[in-house]
Amino acid sequence: MTSTAKRDTYTPESLLAVAVEVFIERGYDGTSMEHLSKAAGISKSSIYHHVRGKEELLHRAVSRALNGLFGVLDEEGAREGRAVDRLEYVTRRSTEVLMADLPYVTLLLRVRGNTDTERWAMERRRQFDHRVALLLTQAAADGDIRSDVDARLATRLLFGMINSVSEWYRPTARGPHSGAEVADAVVAMAFAGLRLP
Amino acid sequence: MTSTAKRDTYTPESLLAVAVEVFIERGYDGTSMEHLSKAAGISKSSIYHHVRGKEELLHRAVSRALNGLFGVLDEEGAREGRAVDRLEYVTRRSTEVLMADLPYVTLLLRVRGNTDTERWAMERRRQFDHRVALLLTQAAADGDIRSDVDARLATRLLFGMINSVSEWYRPTARGPHSGAEVADAVVAMAFAGLRLP
């Protein structure tokens, strides 16, 4: 395959998928355009044909993850009904988004804030967490969830559990647990806990 | 201060503390003896006076974390009583060990397995998780915890929640949550869940 033919097979979408894998493996800071060029098998100038640079790739990648997560908050199950049920809905759907967009959400979770895009992504994550903390506060005020755990702390632990799925979940038929099994388990543990009454 | 005076103030313990911070910041792979020398403010030969190289520092650091975690399993609360209570004890104490030895456990959680020491640490972590999964299986067999979540999956989610504390907990008086508050919240969420009956 000539380099021209290779380049022609690349779309902004497939280039993004490769870039995300490299960012996760080497860290965003540790990734150069040279690394991206090698991983994608196309020249740097071909990459510049698609994007202005690696920060634009990062922006597109974390945007995809953030759009998935914020999209959950706009769904009917997150907008209507008792706060505790909306919270449970958001918990399940956030877990599903993480598994469906695994590399993008994994990258979002690892962003640490050295560039404008990273700081923007961290700020958006904080806004998302804040929206969930508000739901939690409302559910506690309704008397539907325990009020002995601070809402911000509970939100951190809830998403600590959800986000930890990114460390071992792999969407293959041979993975130890199916996506549905994982989402059910997260909801069961977060809302009902391990101990039987 | 002369470099001799500086060197004399270093102990294996304080050198280890500096090395762990550098490993966490740069990644173990990305850390050279030069980086360690600069961060510690002592010459490379002074470091070699204490240790054979950076892998020995990694080994000492993750050993400290692993000894803390396995030590929990030897405590009376983890050995005696019903499995569900032993599991709850291990959950609380693992959270406390993480907060008490925060940088060491954080480093352990980030180890990825390119050297013998990293592979050994990952294997020891798996052994620890396996011990907890056995407790969980026993508690389910006793009818004390839910049996609709696979024990291995439940262990992963449980430690996903516990270990996520390393991402934001800082043991300062000005931290948003005290260590006791965090340990209580982890136990409450993991065993009783958020939703009130």
UniProtKB/TrEMBL annotation, chains A, B:
Coiled coil: none annotated. It holds the Pfam family TetR_C_24. SUPFAM superfamilies: Homeodomain-like, Tetracyclin repressor-like, C-terminal domain. InterPro entries: Homeodomain-like_sf (IPR009057), HTH-type_TetR-like_transc_reg (IPR050109), HTH_TetR (IPR001647), KstR2_TetR_C (IPR041490), Tet_transcr_reg_TetR-rel_C_sf (IPR036271). Residues 32-51 bind DNA. Keywords: DNA-binding, Transcription, Transcription regulation. GO terms for molecular function: DNA-binding transcription factor activity; transcription cis-regulatory region binding. The keyword Transcription regulation applies. It comes from the Bacteria. Residues 9-69 form the HTH tetR-type domain. This is HTH-type transcriptional repressor KstR2. The lineage of its organism: Bacteria, Bacillati, Actinomycetota, Actinomycetes, Kitasatosporales. The gene is kstR2_1.
